[in-house]
NAD(P)H-dependent D-xylose reductase-like protein (Chaetomium thermophilum), 325 residues
Amino acid sequence: MAPQIPNIKLSSGYDMPQVGFGLWKVDRSICADVVYNAIKIGYRLFDGACDYGNEVEAGQGIARAIKEGIVKREELFIVSKLWNTFHDGDKVEPIVRKQLADWGIDYFDLYLVHFPVALEYVDPSVRYPPGWFYDGEKEIRPSKATIQETWTAMESLVEKGLARSIGVSNFQAQLLYDLLRYAKIRPATLQIEHHPFLVQQELLNLAKAEGIAVTAYSSFGPQSFLEFNMKHAVQLTPLFEDETIKKIAAKYNRPASQVLLRWATQRGLAIIPKSTRPEIMKSNLESIEFDLSEEDIATISAFDRGLRFNQPTNYFPTEHLWIFG
């Protein structure tokens, strides 16, 4: 039997499951089956995005589970994100409607601004997902859209019933402060890279003070980024293999993965781990079934190095970085 997943009450009034399933890097060829199996195991929150390129297949997995009576739409919490090339105010609603059609649903439970980076519009008929480059290869073209323009369009999604809650991803404190100055609908959530090497405690404190729920991605640190051959990822000892983490895991008779996930949820964060293997999916859900001591939480937090993996400087050649600095 699947564990009872706690909810986090959002400022929008809706409940968000604290443990969800991330869809980044789930291959299209298996995505429908992965989502279907995750629902059977007990997941109710699915975190997708335009940029992941698998929303059609994720929707197929959900449709199958609903058709078989495993779950009802209203029992699911579907998250998606606005890609950088659709930040212009008049481009937000059309792309959301396309994404909803891809998923086969009428509304998103939560819709996020993926990055605080506005790029020139690329028509979905030309290339979808558009990616970072205007020409699909190397040319980056910034858009003049401001965060305020984009957020105003995001707010209209709530007013039109296309999204129940809206939020942001990969925003830092200064941008949050700016957004809160003019937001008529406050961001319900902030999604950030968060793991023992990147704790961001001051940002977490700000979010808590402003009533913004935080979702952590890449809970296992460099693990998700090894395939990109990032120097500072491949040179680190994986958290799963760290002797301190292994010692704490042995103390609770739990796998290291569960310790890392519980470190986040016990501190009030939501998590969206991903696996294509049913046994690991189940194990990740079971991470909420025990408690770490305050001493062990502090020990894990002390790993903090301010080490970020998901940022443009780790992906792009030097000539592009002026746009992000």
In short: The domain at 15-323 is CATH 3.20.20.100 (TIM Barrel). The first strand starts at residue 7 and ends at 9.
